[in-house]
Amino acid sequence: MDPSYRRAGAGGGSAPRSVEEIFKDFRARRSAILRALTHDVEEFYAQCDPEKENLCLYGYANEAWEVALPAEEVPTELPEPALGINFARDGMNRRDWLALVAVHSDSWLISVAFYYAARLNRNDRKRLFGMMNDLPTVFEVVSGGVKQSRERDRSGNDNSGRNKLSVKHTSEPRIENNAREVDEGYDEDDGDHSETLCGTCGGIYSADEFWIGCDVCEKWYHGKCVKITPAKAESIKQYKCPSCSSKRPRP
């Protein structure tokens, strides 16, 4: 492929310069990567043949994706994605491999955006990162880490501890699901928990931290305060907080 195609991001025109232009480029490239790892996952998987040379996953500004050899020019015009993603394909669990590609893709997307942002001032760089950070990462989407929370509150009768991860936002497509691509971010349910307090330390709810809700008293807790990790929460069918667990049943 012509390296100029990659430099222009398959969208043509000049490089993005303003915060809005750089964010638009970032979002388009992110959408392309998401399509490769979710909607087009079978095609992507087939193209990553371990018998081939070092391959990279590219996302372009026209929302197209490509598995291709890295650019030959040194140094490259733009930061390059992770090299050799195909080699580990058959040596790992498929879901784990896709998640690993997603992590490297997140790093690449940020590096491209901040390559373009080099001439922005401090405030503009901060604003750009905030706009990017409002979107779920590729890893979160591919690994299923972005979930609707408190579904039991919405349904009224769901007592499963599996839905108590702290991310209180919109659902994202899972691997191999022909789901829509998501760019809306986390905004939908943010207002529902602005006054939620941890039952142990009294801290205010933050979407950046893992929380778990008690199925008995319905209070919410920082995972770290009750020594529950996200992984451990997945195996809990009904969670009782320390206070409810210590209460003896009435005779």
How are the SSEs placed, and which strands pair?
Layout lengths: L2 H5 L11 H19 L3 H7 L8 E4 L5 E4 L25 H23 L5 H12 L4 H6 L7 H5 L55 E3 L6 E3 L7 H4 L8 H5 L5
Antiparallel strand pairs: 1-2, 3-4
In short:
Helix content is 34%, strand content 6%.
Structure description:
- With about 250 residues, this protein is mainly alpha-helical.
- It has two domains: about 20-145, no CATH class; about 195-250, Herpes Virus-1 (2-Layer Sandwich), CATH 3.30.40.
- The protein has helices spanning about 5, 20-35, 40-45, 95-115, 120-135, 140-145, 150-155, 230-235, 240-245; strands at about 55-60, 65-70, 210-215, 220.
- The strands form two sheets. The chain has a two-stranded antiparallel sheet with strand order 1-2. Strands 3-4 form a two-stranded antiparallel ribbon.
- α2 (about 20-35) runs antiparallel to α4 (about 95-115) and α2 packs parallel to α5 (about 120-135).
- The longest helix has 23 residues, at about 95-115.
- The model is unreliable at about 1-5 and about 145-190 (pLDDT under 50).
- InterPro entries: Alfin (IPR045104), Alfin_N (IPR021998), PHD_AL_plant (IPR044104), Zinc_finger_PHD-type_CS (IPR019786), Znf_FYVE_PHD (IPR011011), Znf_PHD (IPR001965), Znf_PHD-finger (IPR019787), Znf_RING/FYVE/PHD (IPR013083).
- Interacts with H3K4me3 and to a lesser extent with H3K4me2.
